[in-house]
Design a protein that fits this description.
Length: 745
């Protein structure tokens, strides 16, 4: 009897111990589920990963981990978890196929995404995502078609100084300052803190409210953001909407949620003169009923989105005119623009005839895409809208597109999976000027071509007035990273290699089948001798503005670098230089006429192999032969100038495009970078003496470029400290640079 009692007591203790051990594990899953339901995927992911570490057998948790990775922009990890489930479970949940499709869709792997969407549809006859999957298949087909077209622009994230881990959206260009934007953001530090859907404080499951911010470019780089005045920002969701044409009036909205709100106007008077009373904007656009995303053109025309009755379905675009103290009744823009899906965030270019907007119709490649439509005066109607394609559009939601005054760039927000947070602000740099931003039409806008007689009784709104510096780590090809001792090779041991440049007509040609064949020759050598290093020097013709031409040239070299990296080359063994059209090998123009043959020669990426002294290889670059009648001396000047020692002046080392004007007003601009750092070093000048370069540095400092510094080169590369000292005996002018460096420190 005593033995039985002892056994029961032992079993009871084991049960209680097991139950106590399971309680915190179960609590982790419950906490993860709560965060998951509240769409707080970062916190849910942390809880699920801890649960998975202690109990790795749960496929349900693996699936939710995969979804959390997808929602937090880590599609590679999401795909890894979903594939594991497919490989280890006979009957996976249909959502595994669905999110595998979405993850591949987000990475623009359209064919693979279609296959998984079809597997999802096959695995279930009734599911809440079925209609979404069917539409996504059509959008993937659109994506495949658009991917083959020439790219309109290069797209760049504005970076960590502007964007956050929250929702950054609706960039608004300052009417008075070219290099300043305003935007809205839900991020840590906002005045409203964490709140639930009712607007109540919720520190555990809430989301940050939205405040107004601004940022500006200083010395070519976007600076850290600044929150707007506390007279604007509050505990509610505060969203910047637009400026009037003079920039003296800001329209903004306030709400407890982002779906209905009230619109106000604010003047940019000094704080002491501003009234605490908020002035409502009064018009037939009723924000409280869900009307939104207004765009003001010339202060007299407003475009906006609305779900009001009488539309084509979803949210449609409307326009109205301010005339004789009243706004006319809103008028739908018609079937060429609006669809049964949602159209929103309109922008009308300066010509008053070119409309940009976002739509999630089936001609998008995923979510909301940015479309363009032209108004035909003779027909008094819009033509069929055109999708702007990749990379401006993505598999995510691309919204709030606005073009800069110069027609060379545009800003928009996107939640694509390369974003830092929920949604980031991006810039599109166009390859050519968009002419619609340089023209004024007569009449100034499309809707003034016909008489408007209908007006609303609504009164008008009250009239109102109102560096980053990064360190680049650019390798010196002369420095051997291998422990292999230096040795000499006989002629019989040395193998000769010869490589041709990579020629292109459009950016899509860079990785053409012909160029891939040439790149594979280089690739085989780099893989056989992993300590060899490659320099990619990208050149172009004079087809675009110099600032953009320079930036596009290094982005083209990055495509080649990406191909090498994807096939096993170390990023630290690649250096890229963008020269733009500064050093043409052939004349782009002869006697004032365009020289197509010269342009074709200049559109190329040169490949050079370095660090060969310890290996039995000899490499030659096959530079194109150019007849004397169209030969340009600038390429020879560059190559002769970089022999031995040379100096340049670095004006910025940043992660985005440099927007300072000095790179177009001073000679010999260049960009250097390495995939290992992803920092763009912008340099000016090309001198053989330190004093000449230092003179330029001092001149730039007087112009406010305080970060300017002299950089020394040996045979075109930045030497290490040890190499500087060893070469100073050969090149005495290096002592001036060494002394300058010691003063700078």
């Amino acid at each position: 009897m005593n033995n039985k009692i002892c056994l029961l007591a032992f079993l009871l203790c084991c049960f209680v111990g097991t139950l106590q051990a399971q309680q915190p594990i179960k609590a982790l899953k419950n906490l993860g589920d709560q965060y998951f339901e509240a769409a707080n995927y970062n916190k849910a992911l942390n809880a699920y990963l801890e649960y998975h570490r202690k109990k790795p057998s749960s496929n349900e948790v693996k699936e939710k981990i995969g979804i959390c990775f997808f929602e937090t922009n880590n599609t590679r990890q999401a795909i890894k978890y979903f594939n594991y489930i497919l490989e280890n479970e006979k009957n996976p949940e249909p959502t595994v196929f669905y999110y595998l499709a979405k993850s591949n869709h987000a990475e623009l792997n359209f064919r693979r995404a279609i296959n998984y969407y079809k597997l999802f549809l096959k695995s279930t006859k009734s599911h809440q995502y079925r209609n979404s999957a069917k539409a996504s298949i059509m959008r993937c087909a659109t994506g495949m078609r658009l991917s083959s077209l020439d790219k309109l622009a290069i797209v760049e994230n504005l970076g960590e100084n502007v964007n956050s881990k929250g929702n950054d959206f609706n960039p608004i260009l300052s009417p008075n300052y070219e290099n300043k934007i305003y935007f809205s953001s839900s991020r840590l530090g906002n005045m409203g803190g964490l709140r639930n859907e009712k607007g109540e404080a919720d520190f555990q499951f809430g989301h940050y409210t939205t405040d107004l911010y601004s940022s500006k470019i200083i010395n070519g780089a976007w600076m850290a953001t600044e929150a707007m005045s506390s007279l604007l920002n509050s505990a509610m969701n505060d969203v910047a909407l637009a400026f009037n044409e003079s920039g003296k009036v800001l329209f903004y909205s306030k709400s407890n949620n982002l779906f209905s709100s009230e619109i106000y106007v604010d003047t940019f008077k000094v704080s002491e003169e501003r009234s605490m009373i908020k002035h409502k904007f009064v018009s037939p656009m009723i924000a409280e009923n869900g009307d939104g995303t207004p765009f003001f053109f010339n202060d007299t025309i407003m475009l906006f989105s609305s779900r009001r009755e009488g539309g084509y379905g979803g949210s449609d675009l409307y326009e109205m005119v301010f005339s004789n103290g009243n706004w006319t009744a809103p008028r739908n823009l018609g079937a060429a623009v609006n669809t049964e899906y949602d159209e929103t965030t309109p922008f009308l270019a300066k010509d008053g005839r070119t409309l940009y907007y976002s739509s999630n119709n089936l001609n998008s490649i995923g979510g909301f895409d940015i479309f363009k439509s032209k108004y035909i005066d003779s027909k008094k109607e819009w033509n069929k809208a055109v999708n702007l394609g990749v990379p401006i559009n993505s598999a995510g939601d691309d919204l709030y597109y606005k073009m800069a005054k110069d027609g060379l760039k545009a800003y928009f927000s996107s939640d694509r999976k390369t974003s830092m947070g929920e949604s980031d602000i991006y810039t599109a740099y166009f390859k050519t000027e968009q002419k619609e931003q340089s023209l004024r039409s007569n009449p100034i806008a499309f809707n003034l071509l016909e008489a408007r007689t209908t007006s609303s009784i609504a009164s008008s709104a009250e009239s109102a007035e109102e560096t980053f510096s990064g360190e680049s780590s650019i390798f010196n090809p002369g420095g051997n990273s291998s422990s292999t001792p230096t040795r000499t090779f006989t002629e019989d041991e040395i193998k000769d290699y010869s490589f041709k440049p990579i020629f292109y007509n459009t950016d899509d040609d860079i990785l053409s089948s012909k160029n891939i064949m040439e790149l594979n020759k280089v690739l085989r050598l780099l893989l056989e001798y992993p300590d060899l290093k490659v320099l990619l020097t990208s050149n172009s013709d004079e087809t675009g503005p110099a600032k953009f031409d320079l930036y596009f040239s290094i982005k083209r070299a990055e495509k080649v670098a990406g191909y090498f990296i994807d096939n096993g080359v170390s990023p630290s063994n690649i250096l890229i230089k963008g020269c733009g059209s500064n050093y043409p090998l052939a004349k782009n123009n002869i006697n004032g006429e365009i020289n197509p043959q010269g342009q074709r020669i200049n559109r190329r990426i040169d490949l050079e192999i370095f660090n060969t002294e310890n290996f039995p290889v000899r490499v030659k670059l096959d530079t194109p032969t150019v007849g004397s009648y169209m030969s340009d001396t600038k390429w020879n000047y560059y190559n002769s100038s970089i022999k031995g020692i040379s100096y340049k002046v670095e004006v910025a080392a940043i992660k985005q495009m440099y927007n300072g004007e000095v790179i177009t007003t001073y000679p010999n601009a260049m960009i250097e970078s390495s995939p290992n750092t992803r920092v763009y070093s912008y340099t000016l000048g090309l001198y053989k003496t330190f004093s000449s370069a230092d003179q330029l540095r001092k001149e730039l400092e007087k112009k406010g470029i305080t970060e300017a510094k002299v950089i020394a080169y040996i045979d075109g590369f930045r030497p290490s400290k040890a190499q500087l000292m060893s070469k100073a005996g050969q090149y005495s002018d290096l002592w001036n640079f060494i002394q300058y460096q010691s003063r700078e420190k």
